[in-house]
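Note to self: keep these together.
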Amino acid sequence: MKGIGTLFIIVLFTLFSCRSPYPNDGQIVARVGNNVLLKSEVEYLVPPGISYDDSIAMVQQYVNSWSLKYLLIAKAEKEIPGVHGSIEREINDYRNSLLAYRYEKQYIDQRLDTLVTENEERQYYFDNQENFTSTNSVVTARVIKISSSSPNLARIKSLYRTESIDDVAELERICYNSADKYTNFDNRWVDLAAVAGEIPFDITEVEKQIKLRNYIETTDALYNYLVFFSEIINPEHIAPFEFYQQRIKEIIIGKRKQELIEKLERDLMKEALDNNTLVTTINK
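Structure:
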């Protein structure tokens, strides 16, 4: 291969008396420069009982892929100025970053307290309430999707806005048997977008609707959608603690992680300065 110096390829596939897809020596299948592909590295590709022609095709495909990889590497080494130095620096930088990350993770995993009490969560909520306003309304709601031809539609319509525990139980029983979908979001506070995702209205339209009343009735070609909002917190108002509880827990744990990282960094610097592992001439 003129123009690639000592780079060359040997790929020998001939018919042998033993009908093997490998070269006569039974070892070297292909060579690109100093890189050698051995029979032992590719023979696992050929399952038992496969025809000779199919085995040739499978091995040839693999050898082509292997050869092209080393051809591209050789070409890059020849054509890209300073590639060896830059690649080595990048590899070393990646190795160092990965090593530091793994040690930092091990350090945190061994020391991080992930137990957060509800009292801690509530205290954080009350201390930072200005951060707990929502862009959308926050609601508790129930949503029912039911066929327009359902014989239970009228009864469900008469019950879906109920506040009575007994009536809610009856509603859920009927919906379980008749509705295509019923959800009360586990009686949790949710972003209004979660409700909008269940009905053929976008979030803007749902916001308009709940300014007028605490329920929505709408239809499409096949279904009736019935939504009742038992509680509504309007946008830009402080949402309830329960809505943010999981996020608050994650914030508290995140702060603990950051404190551990800062402690690790302080301890490393102090230890290195004390034992002269780190020497700096910068004046304090």
